Amino acid sequence: MSEPFRRGKIQFAGPRHMAYIEWGEPDAKALVCVHGLTRCAHDFDFLAPEMARRGYRVICPDVAGRGDSAWLKEPMDYAVPAYSKDMLMLMAHLKLESAHWLGTSLGGLIGMTIAAMPESPIQRLVLNDVGPVLTVAALQRIAAYLGKWPALPTIEAAEQFVRAVSASFGPHTDAEWRFLTEHVVRRNADGSLRMHYDPAIAVPFNAEMPARDVELWKFYDEIRCPTLVLRGEQSDLLTRDTLAQMAVRGPRAKTVEIPGVGHAPTLIHVDQIAIVRDFLLAA
């Protein structure tokens, strides 16, 4: 049986490329979905077909150094400005003059950066558990596992690791945890597994570890498009206070808290998908 999505690749200067998958009709309204720091394009395998059925062309890229995209030669290039440039080049490659944007964590920071640009191509923005204040406590938690993983001799061992570092995703079935694992591992020559991303993404992350919370209000306050912010009720990255400020500053976002979840909602459950779908379709 053929896959329900199409695979694509944009070639940059030199050998580097960025992979993406897309759903829906090529001439439909575009929705760009960008994953979190250590995740991949397949995180949207549940949301994307639903949005395609609702008339969207859904484009889900693997950010540089992740999934099927090439690794970067210079580790310090693993940063939001470079990622944002890549995404703008992808949109130009696909001839997208405008798009709606859904970004989880890192994907939201990229979206927020692009949405703050003058004459931004983003017409509607969804930020999934991320905002203009990043708590140092969450950044330190992420740094503790970023680029590090134990021996993963089997898919079961890999799933155990993913469950441990992603416990804040909240309750999921065994089948859902297996799905959340299968797309973020790659097989080594000896048959063992490793995580799918370049461990060097940890280099700039650790080099720039702040002593206090990171504030990005200058970007958020420039956003003019309708914006939705999702927050996991137990999130340590996006605080309830920041969420409240986002509702009255900048684009004056619509805000929704998802109970029983930390950082970040996976958007594979129907109730979470419905929140995003209803906001985007209200355009």
Which key features would you list for this structure?
10 helices, alpha/beta, eight-stranded mixed beta sheet, 283 residues, single chain, 31% helix, two-stranded antiparallel sheet
Set out the fold topology.
Blueprint: E1 6-11, E2 17-23, E3 29-34, H1 47-53, E4 56-61, H2 80-93, E5 99-104, H3 106-115, E6 122-128, E7 133-134, H4 136-143, H5 155-165, H6 174-182, E8 185-187, E9 193-195, H7 202-207, E10 214-215, H8 217-220, E11 227-232, H9 240-246, E12 254-258, H10 270-281
Helix pairs in contact: 2-3, 5-6
Task: Explain what this protein looks like in three dimensions.
The protein has 283 residues and is α/β, with parallel strands linked by helices. The protein has 10 helices and 12 strands. Strands 1-2-4-3-5-6-11-12 form an 8-stranded mixed beta sheet, with helices on both faces. A two-stranded antiparallel ribbon has the order 7-10. A hairpin with a 5-residue loop joins strand 1 and strand 2 (17-23). The longest helix is centred in the N-terminal third of the chain and has 14 residues, at 80-93. The radius of gyration is 18 Å and the shape is globular.
